Amino acid sequence: MRIKLIKVVLWNSIAMAALVAQPAKNPPPKAKTASTAGNPPAADTQNSTKAIEPKSSADLDEVVVQANTRVTGSKTDVPIHDTPASIITVPEEIIEEQMAVDMNSMVKNVSGVNQQLGGGYGFADSYTIRGLNMRFLRDGFADGAAFNGYMRTMSDVESIEVLKGPGSALYGRNEPGGAINITTKKPHEKFAASVDGLTGFWNTYRIAADVNAPLVNDKLLTRTIASQYSTDGYRGLARRITEILPTVTWKFNDKHSLTLDYDFRDIKTRPDNYGILFDATNGLSAGSPTRTFYSPFNTAQQTVNRISTFYEGRFNEHFRLRSTLIYDNRSIYMIRNGSGSANTTSSIGNVTNRDAREQRDAVDSILHQNEAVFKFKTADFQHTVLTGLEFEYIRLGSVRNSYSPLPAVSLAQPAPSETSLSNYPKTLSFDRNVQMMTSSIYAQEQVAFNNYLKARAGVRLDHVEASDAGYGSQPNVTGASQRTIQMSRDLVSWQSGLLYQPWQPVSFYTGYSEGRYVALNTEAAYMYTEPETSSQAEVGNKLSFFGDRFQTNLALFRTTRANYAYTDTSGNVNFVGGKRYTRGIELDISGTPLAGLWVIFNSALMDSEIANETTGTGINTVNLSGLTPQNIPQYAGSLWATYEIQAGFFKGLGFGGGPSYKSGVYADAKNLLRVPGYIIADAVLFYKRHHWQVQVNFKNITNEIYYTTPTFSGALPGEPFNFTVAAKARI
């Protein structure tokens, strides 16, 4: 496998070198850029809701770091407004106004995105999009696993883009729900520095610094962001996160640049797999939401080291080349409770089915990608063509031990007494060494036939080779043993779409996509050799008002996940062939319709259904077909609006807020245990000056008792009324 790895990297690099070595023809003298049917000038930065200023031809030639020139839905600079897919952006202004310190605070701004416990277990971000699994991207590249990932902060986040539905045609191993792409802050040519601090309830504090310093006649650009976040947490769910995030960009000239980016994160959190438990009547047990059932020694300790290099060159106005190399190293040690059965309390009110799991994961990955973007015209048709070669190698080691039974606790007044894992019997669940190599080639064509009709089509071929060796379970075999599982697959994913613009601010679109990918995680006892599949059909409408400052996206969709693995309630018998789908309608609105006014609104109505899945074994087998998957609300949404006074004595003073709502959800696949819905509201008061600002964010201002997400046996309570105070200074 290592020899193949070297060969593929060399082959990919040689292909890149061959492209670069082609002699560039001298372009004719360049006149001012004219408007074309395929790419109107006003949409050049459609990724932003800010007012768009005219650009000179010199500005258009300026090289911008790769991450900021990529739109999540297309990987090209074709505007979102001209792309036949749902791509929703949460801009930096909203992140700052809501004083977001983690991803959970941000996803509520996007329709159809819901927080999950499974896959995150309280120590990592985990969500569904349109009721199905998703994955994270960072500047357009894979960022951690869908399971057992890490908890993200907003320290270096410029904006968040959410791609709805399968994205495998562009991103390969992409989950059916879609992707959340984090666009990071990059160096620029003006010196700037800021420091900010935050304090709040439960001994919460955060301090961060951001220094942008251009060097060497603006050819060498640097930016360093560092932050420290600490909280004892509501219900004792503590977090300690340290981040050091430097970036260096070397601009060789006006057309070529190289960026080196390093991410260091040290994350310590306390997971809670129980929350407030269901009682024997299938309802959430009465009593204080501050009760805790988790083991006192629960912990999750993670370290992330990610080194990225980005080359981007614009050889002429028709050809752009990008090359990326990323090395990612992650390690995690965790102790968490692992009971997966619901309604675990006995008739006398004791919780008797408690256990603990200890796990160590170590992940190393290498990603090498080369992409070329060509722009040309045939007759009156404007073409934007993307081609790419990609290689990814992942090595994953995982060891899990289980400890049971832990002492029973009272449902009404729990006081977990366990102090050390060494006091309880240990069982080795698995000791796995997984390796996966993926070589990919892909292409996408975006064409504007005229001012009104535009289309897109893309296809990707992934060749996957993988092995899973060590101690653990394997398909169709009872029990665990030493085994080696191997697979090799060629997977084809594709997408297509059509967009009609009767006039520039209005777009009607339709799209269809299919994805195939091999799921890779350390939650299953073994690797599944059959690929999962996904598909989506979507129609929608996009509107743009006030010079692109205010935008809407309305979408009607049906998204399907199929051929996934599922387990019975014992967790020992594994099946492949699950199928579920979500159909629904979503509306997202965001922007600045008036000076000083920010509005972001979203709403989703979803009908999620299991099409093929069972639970239990033998005479206890239950067919789940027709039931609703866990933790998928029928409707959810939020509104956030703020206004900043623009003139006079109170200039810079601002205020606002808004509600979030979510319907009730099921905590179990049998639809017996239901977590109630909720409506809560947050607010903000701020004062901004040129070099400083202060603000107070109020959360859950009506002090509602509510539950954010189901666990395996209950639901996690949301925070009661609290507030944070923050200040920022900048030069």
| Domain tally | 1
Measured on Cα atoms, how large is the radius of gyration?
Answer: 26 Å
Uncertain ranges: 1-69, 569-573
Tell me the overall shape: globular
Characterize the biggest β-sheet. Answer: 22 strands, antiparallel, barrel
Fold-level CATH name: Maltoporin, Chain A
| Percentage beta strand | over 45%
Task: Give the SSE map.
Blueprint lengths: L1 H20 L35 H5 L25 E4 L1 H6 L6 H4 L5 E3 L11 E3 L2 E7 L2 E2 L14 E8 L3 H4 L6 E7 L7 E9 L3 E12 L4 E12 L7 E13 L4 E14 L6 E2 L21 E18 L2 E18 L13 E2 L4 E23 L2 E23 L5 E2 L15 E23 L4 E22 L2 E27 L2 E12 L14 E14 L4 E18 L6 E18 L5 E16 L1 E2 L6 E2 L11 E10 L8 E10 L2 E2 L7 E2 L2 E11 L3 E8 L7 E4 L3 E4 L4 E9 L1
Parallel strand pairs: 4-7
Antiparallel strand pairs: 1-6, 2-3, 3-4, 4-5, 6-7, 8-9, 8-38, 9-10, 10-11, 11-12, 12-14, 13-37, 14-15, 15-17, 16-19, 17-18, 18-20, 20-21, 21-22, 22-23, 23-24, 24-25, 25-26, 26-27, 27-30, 28-29, 30-31, 31-34, 32-33, 34-35, 35-38, 36-37
Describe this structure in words.
Helices cover 5% and strands 54% of the residues. With 731 residues, it is mainly beta. It is globular. The protein contains five helices and 38 strands.
